[in-house]
Amino acid sequence: MPPEPERRDPPVRDAATVVLVRRDPEGARVLMGQRGNGAAFMPDKFVFPGGAVDPEDGLLPGEAVLEPLTAERLALDAPPALVPSLARAAVRELWEETGLMLGLPDAAAAGLAVPEAWRGFYAAGLVPNAAALRFIFRAITPPGRPRRFDARFFLVEAGAIAGDGLDATGEELANLQWLTLPAARALALPFITEVVLSEVEAIMADADPARPVPFFHQTSEGSRFRLL
């Protein structure tokens, strides 16, 4: 019998995920949705909105002005050109998966020439609000998975969402819900989502904006963890 072909891991893609937090009187809630059962990556799991960086995210006009500490920490392990693309990917994925726009009003936005994936966002008279993103976690998908991502997680306060309401109506995630942290933990979650929820809970109790950013990376040799 001929030898079986060597199995190779897919390339690791840069990705951005948004942990949208709403502070209700009874406690913090996060927005989560369920991936389809036919999804190639994490089927049926409840996750935060997010996805891979697209080339078009680097082609928007203007600058992506980030909060200084977030910009500094992203730049530790990311090429300079990738940093604004990560921020814009977070905004785009939140919009595509939930219908919620993390944007700032700009009278000139609708008339700007932007990539197709962004036309609906700019047509609403908005530009991405990168400054509302707080970098809180980084994780790389372990080897052996059908898809692998180098995901940066961003915390966003719900008050930064444009518009009067927070009705999430995206088409890419099912069962979108605002969940308390205990309720979220009771769902079928990927391991890394459970870890991020614990970090979110710690952030809610720690007002220090300089809190270190955990970086979780699992290789064939074992798990690695460091702080950014």
Detailed description of the structure:
The chain has 228 residues and is an alpha+beta fold. It has a single domain (25-227), classed as Nucleoside Triphosphate Pyrophosphohydrolase (Alpha-Beta Complex). It has five helices and eleven strands. The protein is globular and about 50 Å long. The N and C termini lie far apart (49 Å). The mean pLDDT is 88.
Secondary-structure topology with pairs:
Blueprint: E1 12-24, E2 27-34, E3 46-47, E4 50-52, H1 68-74, H2 82-98, E5 103-105, H3 119-123, E6 126-128, E7 134-140, E8 148-157, E9 174-180, H4 181-185, H5 191-205, E10 214-219, E11 222-227
Parallel strand pairs: 1-8, 7-10
Antiparallel strand pairs: 1-2, 1-4, 2-3, 2-9, 5-6, 7-8, 10-11
Summarize the entry for a quick read:
It contains five helices and eleven strands. The chain has helices spanning 68-74, 82-98, 119-123, 181-185, 191-205, and strands spanning 12-24, 27-34, 46-47, 50-52, 103-105, 126-128, 134-140, 148-157, 174-180, 214-219, 222-227.
Major sheet: 9 strands, mixed
Count the beta strands: 11
Distance between the termini: 49 Å
Helical amount among residues, as a percent range?
Answer: 10-25%
What does the average pLDDT come to? 88
Shape: globular
Number of domains: 1
Jot down its keywords.
single chain; 228 residues; alpha+beta; Nucleoside Triphosphate Pyrophosphohydrolase; nine-stranded mixed β-sheet; two-stranded antiparallel sheet; 5 helices
